[in-house]
């Protein structure tokens, strides 16, 4: 169900993909291919209601790639009103997407589930 222009934009501009390397560009292929299939969750809860992450998660399967076009064509007031997701309980290096992310990045790659490869440094 489309709630507003931002939700419609996500649904129209996002390109869903699976974690199969053939569906991603070379840079994303290398990142995804390097993941160990045996992963441990990073301590993220569900994204808070109406955050950009919650909206992207509602529009995606395992993941999606969406060009932002520097947020052109989107309502500035709608973008500014986006709540910001809280961080990870275990990984202090995580930073949430903010309204500014739509203008700062040329594209967003969103994975519905992220893990942590065993054998990496311990998380707090």
Shape: globular
Task: Let me know the number of strands.
Answer: 5
| Alpha-carbon Rg, integer | 15 Å
Classify the oligomer. single chain
Strand order of the largest sheet: 1-3-4
Domain count: 1
Uncertain ranges:
none
Largest sheet: 3 strands, antiparallel
The end-to-end distance, rounded to whole angstroms, is 38 Å
Number of separate helices: 5
Q: Average pLDDT, to the nearest integer?
A: 74
Order of H and E elements? HEHEHEHHEE
Structural class: alpha+beta
Strand content: 15-25%
What proportion of the residues is helical, as a percent range?
Answer: 25-40%
Reconstruct the topology from this structure:
Elements: H1 5-13, E1 15-17, H2 26-33, E2 39-41, H3 52-59, E3 63-67, H4 76-80, H5 101-104, E4 107-111, E5 115-117
Antiparallel strand pairs: 1-3, 2-5, 3-4
Task: Explain the overall architecture.
A 3-stranded antiparallel β-sheet has the order 1-3-4, covered by helices on one side. It has a two-stranded antiparallel sheet with strand order 2-5. The chain is built from 5 helices and 5 strands; from the N terminus they run αβαβαβααββ. The chain has one domain. It starts with a helix and ends in a 7-residue tail after the last strand. Helices cover 27% and strands 15% of the residues. The protein has helices at residues 5-13, 26-33, 52-59, 76-80, 101-104; strands at 15-17, 39-41, 63-67, 107-111, 115-117. The longest helix is centred in the first third of the chain and has 9 residues, at 5-13. With 124 residues, it is of the alpha+beta class.
